[in-house]
Amino acid sequence: RAVHLTDYAPFSHIVEHVHLSFDLRRSATRVTARIGMRPNPDATRGPLRLDGEGLTLLWARIDGAEVAPRLDATGLTVDAPDAPFVWECAVEIDPSSNTALEGLYISNGMFCTQCEAEGFRKITYYPDRPDVMAPFTVRINSDLPVLLSNGNPGASGDGFAEWEDPHPKPAYLFALVAGDLVAHSDRFTTSEGRDVALNIWVRPGDEDKCAYAMDALKRSMAWDERVYGRAYDLDVFNVVAVDDFNMGAMENKGLNIFNARYVLASPETATDDDYARIESIVAHEYFHNWTGNRITCRDWFQLCLKEGLTVYRDQQFSGDERSHAVQRIGDVQMLRGRQFREDAGPLAHPVRPASYIEINNFYTATVYEKGAELIGMLRRLVGDDGYAKALDLYFARHDGQACTIEDWLAVFQDATGRDLTQFKLWYSQAGTPVLDVDWRLEDGTLTLKIDAAIPETPGQTDKALPVIPVSLGAIARDGREVLATTVIEVSETPTRVSFDIGTDDAVPSVLRNFSAPVTLNLDLAKADRAVLLAHDTDPFNKWEAGRMLAKAALTAMVTDGADSDPDFLAALQPVLADETLDPAFRALVLGLPSDDDMAGTLALAGQTPDPDAIAAARRDLGHAMAVDLESTLTALYDGMQVHGPYDPAAADAGKRALRNAALAYLTKLDGGDRARRQFDAADNMTDSLGALVPLIRIGAADDALARFYQSWKDHRLVLDKWFSLQIAAAPGTEGAAIAARLVEHPDFDWKNPNRFRSVIGALGMNHASFHKADGSGYALVADWLIKLDPVNPQTAARMTTLFETRARYDADRQGLMRDALDRISAAPDLSRDTGEMVGRMLDG
Ligand code: ARG
Ligand code: ZN
């Protein structure tokens, strides 16, 4: 049942052209395929094997003559001529009963598709694998007003439309949309002089919420030309917003399909964070046109080839458009919060996995986010020029091909001459490397001894050291930088380096800009961390110094019952008040590590995290910060007010972030007076939620929540926020009971993935509530995953990751989590998706 990387073999045939014709009907859509094929000279001869699932075959022909293929549960087999031939077949499918949202399905009356990774086989019989690339033509017959597919528009008329995609593509990039849609349109002229029609298609009524996504799209197109020399290659670029979608969005050639929440925005309905996510996802999907579509993956083991690179590119883009410092800190928080957590548990897997049962389970933080870190490290190792040369070579050499990580690394070796054998280990070894750094400062010389090791992960015990780029510098205690950023390569353990820095009165700043996805153990006194927080020229490490102080303070409170650390509070104040620092950066400095982050930190230090104690420590430290910093926070709250019309760009968003961060603390002191005033006066969703969330946290939001519901009950994306925030931000361990109540709410439409995540997923976001000692959090999640699995296996399987941290906790909680996993695993007809996830968690 498992697929292995080492089993790769090319497909028996070459597909020369695909023509598809759709007669769209809700419960009986007919799909007719005409596919030109010939034997693949590079493959072993054999019968024609096509993937197909849930299809009713009406007829099949080869070169016009009826054939009778052998059908089974996963496809068909038929003898084919040893020469070029035309395969034709007609199948019937039922989009109306497709609740898995994979293949062709219906969302709010709109036909749409999701084919990555293996959904095309639910549309017609086909070699559904990414290394089979072909040009497609499509005809859609339907009375619906808007009929879309990939490529350029062809003929259209009453009840039909034709589409032509000249660029060979794998089936996972196929898309079709049909519905009653309206467009927000614009144009873009490429650097090559191509005039491209841009359309964002939405349901009537949503057309006023597309301007920001369109703006982000045009900026993405210009950026990819400017930074990577990549221009768009079709006459139209269509984006469609869909309400029912398992993931964020999908890069189908010329027809990107998005979860509506990552397209639609207006100041009244979307927060600054929503705007930022829309910008980055629009960019991500657009950038896939070159890194993913024109150059795709040979097989699904190479998923990081397109995802890691495209995430890296969208992070670069957002950094360029906003702030590199703020972007990097956010990316690292996300990496640590999701990927380090994954890497430390039973679901740990390499960036390029060696085997899988269900590929949809590998669209993970490791493949995406750690995959992106590998690109950043490569760039650090070969330099900016080397990176640019390698990328040019990649596009020149591999355009139109389905590639591997070996191809990717070869362009770096060929373009720069650098041997990447040791670097390549990053792709095949799971686990977050740990760097233990000893440092000494004598006679003006800074000496570092770095020990590196990778912890064991499921199925991987003995690991070799990959080369690790470590950026470092040093800051004198008087604030001067005495060692500018230098990148050293840790390629053996231990690695020793020394630098003449001319003073003994300095502090090393190690792993600047988080130059590698590792855990750093570096012993620094509190006072030395305060020096870095005050003076580090590297914004990431400046922030990190504050974070380490906060973690030390929280750890002492949790484990020794210590009081909140006055030195931490004293070190924070000047940074918060420093007018030369970007408000968005200061907002990040003001934020405390999450409960889950603290639980992971304690577990890594060999302790058993107590969720209630962590929540209490965080609450107490937050309260102490509010008391101690009250005047600074009040000045920020008053001073960071934004005047004039709402602008989602970084400058104003940063001010709102800092102001609302200040409000969150002040609300702990004023009983919610300021927050209630802000909630009443807010004219944008950022300020509205900036007030509502702190009110929820102090248990004083009943009235505000009721009014919020009345205002937004007909707006599905805002209603998702109403559901999720009252659970995720619930104080104490109340989240479990609130979620249990909200699943009874008439607006809880559990078959809609966004709504399901807003309730069940939100409970998982509330650490103390999910881990409530009576097991009610675990039980509720398990009940609902059992219910969702037969309806939507992908979304259910993904959410089982809430249990991946089981091993961190005490025996009672571990037992309750195991009970929940056992119960899921015993559900009748458990999907392959959820079965694989739960199996790995029970074994690991
Ligand atoms: N390729 C898409 C993206 O990264 C994600 C689609 C994943 N879908 C899935 N069912 N696994 O933008
Ligand atoms: Zn992607």
Automatic annotation (TrEMBL):
Residues 527-842 form the Peptidase M1 alanyl aminopeptidase C-terminal domain. The keyword Amino-acid biosynthesis does not apply. Residues 100-173 form the Aminopeptidase N-like N-terminal domain. The keyword Acetylation does not apply. Residues 431-521 form the Peptidase M1 alanyl aminopeptidase Ig-like fold domain. This is Aminopeptidase N. Its EC number is 3.4.11.2. It catalyses: Release of an N-terminal amino acid, Xaa-|-Yaa- from a peptide, amide or arylamide. Xaa is preferably Ala, but may be most amino acids including Pro (slow action). When a terminal hydrophobic residue is followed by a prolyl residue, the two may be released as an intact Xaa-Pro dipeptide. Belongs to the peptidase M1 family. It comes from Palleronia pontilimi. One of its GO terms (molecular function) is metallopeptidase activity.
